[in-house]
Amino acid sequence: MSREFPIGLTPPDWLVRNLRPQQAAPLNWAALARAALAMSLPLAVGLAVGQPAYGALASMGALSGVIGDTADAYRMRILNIAVPQLFGAVGVTAGSLVYGQGWLTVAVITGIALLSGMISTIGAVSSVSGLLLLLNSVIGAGLPLPGAWWLTPVLMTGGGLLVLLLALLAWPLRSGVPERSAVAATYRTVADLLSVSDSDDEAYDRARRTVTESLNQSYDLILARRARYRGRSSELTRMLAQLNAITPVVEAAPAVRLARLAGKPLPPEVPAAVLHIADAIETGYTGPIGLDLPQPVNETGRAVDHALRHVAEVATTPASALPHSRLRLSGRDPHGIDDRLGLPAALGIRTARAARNVVLSANSWRYGIRLALCIGIAQALVSLVPVPRSYWVALTITFVLKPDFGSVFSRALLRAVGTVAGLVVAATVLTVVPRGWWDVPVMMILAPLVPALTPRGYGFQTAAVTPVILLLSDVLNHQGTALLLPRLLDSLMGCAIALIAGYLLWPESWRTRVGDRLADAVADTAAYVELAFKAGANPAARARMRRRLYRDLSVIRTEFQRALTEPPPTGRRAAAWWPLVVAVERIVDATTAARVRVRHGASPPAQAEVGQVALQLRELAEGVRRSETLVAVRTDLAGPPDSVLEPLRQEVAAARAIASPH
């Protein structure tokens, strides 16, 4: 007999969501080995030359490199690791120059926090760069560092670059392999989407989201590499053409779904053919590929058959033999993916524009001011009140107050929980293991836990990083277990400052933004419906709008998941929008399915019918925008029962019914 918690003892849903480990991919054993070697080797060298403190500083730099070692493509690793290391070197140098300068230290670190917060809004690499700039400046301002002023930045940067060097060792042998694997993985997600059972709506929605995420990741990798090549690269052109070619199959998936629900399932040979093409892409095969496809019997079957034969031709044709129209490396990609990339795809191309946008952006200033306020409070507090190892307070704030990394509230909670768990491990290490050469094998055990646990969530990452940092700190100052209690108190102080001055005082940081973004997505869906059935419309423009819609809905889902980790009332408000988020995704699917059917033989709808659907979507968008509570809207939709838009009208009616409280 199952046991149930008494009602009063049942943990709240937001707490359970915060503490639940995230699903992660299988362990990356190469990353674990790099972490063990890169963080233990500097310690061993330092001990061998009689300068263990120098080895500890290099290991600290290697730790930041290990945390940033998340990219699959080798060129992306250069950006993800090397660029933040340069910012970190500047930060530790600036911090060390104002060490022990009282209020000057407070002013300089607060100014660096403002700059760090603003550049963090540019993109993924700039976010990590801003983080490391501030982290290392706090370390430099809070610790008496050994040697000349230039030695510490050299050692820490060298440790980070050691991680990069180890990561690039296999590049000559595996150049292009991560990108090909990503494209092949995208094809396999499309095969899974085409194979979903007709009775499992949740599985279909999950498979479609997986396709969107995989497409985004693949375009990110290839377009980021494109930024490095001003001319044409045959390898890149072929992979980009392969990604572009799968788009018609993705567009046909909603029509396949509707046909399956109508009792016309897709033959199993179709997803099998997609998997066959994926294997050819991953191995780099060029040449004829046989497709065992049955004769299509309806518009949907013809759409899929035509799309797959086109995919097979493009996927296995050498880049030199592909028509130039498919090789879009000299301009923007036809799906508008590169316009959402941050620094990786824009490095050396749009740097000036990014800097201008940061200076003029209200969001950049708002986040920079929030971060500077919290860091300023922390630095002023530890200047007035004696706090052992006071720099940990600011370090905690820097990690917690990263909205692009997730909910501030959630990160503060997980930081506290992870610190406690990490201190238990650190206490054992500092008590049992003698300092000296024993630090090397201990580090070889602790270091791999960082890349192993980081994908599980921020709390797990904190639990892995805490004993590593404390071990390195003890090598520097030899305080042993006396470090444990100050670390806990400083972390709790930092979490409290971040929650009060960086979270509660800024309502936009804890109020749900799902409603506004959902209203924008519904309005954009109305425009997509009009464009999908507009005579003479550019097919590339349709594809860009559809991709942008799915991307925006993916962002809304992320925002929704973030809001569910917030305590009431934010989580409850966000949960109210969830059925409508799913309904809007299905409207986009139904629109795409109808367009595919028209393109392959179905009668096009009348413009008046298209206009009616678009009008009611705009009414729905306005109703959602007016309030955080769902408002009543009309649900009357009429049209020819045999129209290609009948499934779309049904989805719109369902969405409007969800939005109505009655």
What does this structure look like?
This protein is mostly helical and 662 residues long. The protein contains 29 helices and no strands. α11 runs antiparallel to α14 (299-315). The longest helix has 30 residues, at 570-599. The model is unreliable at 1-5, 227-231, 324-349 and 628-633 (pLDDT under 50).
Mean pLDDT: 80
Q: Estimate the helix proportion, in percent.
A: over 70%
Count every helix, treating DSSP H or I runs of 4 or more residues as helices. Answer: 29
Question: How big is the Rg?
Answer: 27 Å
Distance between the termini: 40 Å
Number of strands: 0
Q: Provide the β-strand percentage band.
A: under 5%
Class by alpha and beta content: mainly alpha
How many separate domains make up the residues? 3
Q: Describe the biggest sheet?
A: none
Shape: globular
| Topology as a string of helices (H) and strands (E) | HHHHHHHHHHHHHHHHHHHHHHHHHHHHH
**Residue windows where pLDDT falls under 50 for at least 5 positions:** 1-5, 227-231, 324-349, 628-633
Give a quick precis of the structure.
The protein has 662 residues and is mainly α. The chain contains 29 helices and no strands. It is globular, with a radius of gyration of 27 Å.
Task: Identify the notable features of this structure and list them briefly.
single chain; 662 residues; mainly alpha; 71% helix; 0% strand; disordered N terminus
